[in-house]
Amino acid sequence: MKVLVTFAVEAEFAAWRRLRAFNVIDYQGLKLRKTRIGAAEVTVLITGVGAQAAAQAMDLMMRMADKDQYFEVCISSGLAGALCETLGVGDIIAPKELIVELKHADLREERLEVDAELRRLALGQGAKEANCLFTTDEILVKASQKKSCASRAQSVDMESFEIVKAATAWGARSVVIRAISDAATEDLPINFNLTLSAQNQVSIPKVLGQLAKNPLALPSLIRFGRQSKRAGVLLATFLENYLQDLAGHEVAKGVSEVAAR
């Protein structure tokens, strides 16, 4: 069984990389890592931050995928923000459906559902249901922004909708497994929308530039870094257990039978 796991940035993947050895593969600018967990051959893709970066990275993965590299399962992973107060930092979520706002269409939003069986397996491992995840085109910096979206979803990220949409177009079964990095009631310490590089990664020089404008944000930034790191560690442990369970579960047999048709 071939599994693709995506993260937006290296920092989200760092804790899992410390848990096990991954082989490094370079493909036209894509940052790929490979490992094997039981019967699962796992490829990790770093997409970059945002829907556009995720769509481009997934498109390139689709172009490189031949019959021997076809992914049967796709997991959109990494960190997410809470939109409801019932979710706390470090909680692992497995939403049932994803929504994205359509800015230039008659419909207000588009919806997708993840694979029900893959999600049930995540819930059985202890993930919280958090039924709906909202994929936005910018980081929600203020608690007031999160509150304005809370009636539509329980959590928010910037990549999952495009990842699941692309994977579904391949015929892969998809699930979202993410860890909460910031609570619904907290502001982020700086505007991370202003810290992204041309490669859609967080730029340290730009972070320092934001701090230079507001030195008082440093303690909050350090605290946010620590809680994000903790969320990443919890996510890494969850993914390790989830993939081991998936590799030996009836779900894997179903995946293999579908791929063989």
Quick structural overview:
The chain is 39% helix and 25% strand. The protein has 261 residues and is of the alpha/beta class. Strand 9, helix 4 and strand 10 form a beta-alpha-beta unit.
Summarize the SSE layout with pairings.
Elements lengths: L1 E6 L2 H10 L3 E5 L2 E8 L2 E7 L4 H14 L8 E10 L9 E2 L3 E5 L7 E5 L2 H9 L7 E4 L7 H7 L5 E3 L2 H11 L2 E10 L21 H10 L4 H30 L2 H11 L1
Parallel strand pairs: 1-4, 1-5, 5-11, 7-9, 9-10
Antiparallel strand pairs: 2-3, 3-4, 5-10, 6-11, 7-8
- Fraction of residues in H or I helices: 25-40%
| Structural class assignment | alpha/beta
Give the helix tally. Answer: 8
Biggest sheet character:
11 strands, mixed
Report the uncertain regions.
none
Mean pLDDT: 88
The N- and C-terminal alpha carbons lie at a distance of 14 Å
Choose one word for the global shape: globular
What percent of residues are in strands?
A: 15-25%
Based on CA atoms alone, the radius of gyration comes out at 18 Å
The total beta strand count reads 11
Can you write the helix and strand succession as a string?
A: EHEEEHEEEEHEHEHEHHH
